[in-house]
Amino acid sequence: MTLNPTKAAQQLLAILAVLVLGAQLALAAPAHKVAIHVNQDDPATMNMALNNAQNIASYYASQGQEVTIEIVTYGPGLHMLRADTSPVGDRISAMALEMTNLSFSACENTINGMKKKSQKDVPLLSEATVVPSGAVRLMELQQQGYSYLRP
Question: pLDDT of 37-57, one tens digit each?
Answer without folding.
Answer: 999 999 999 999 999 999 999
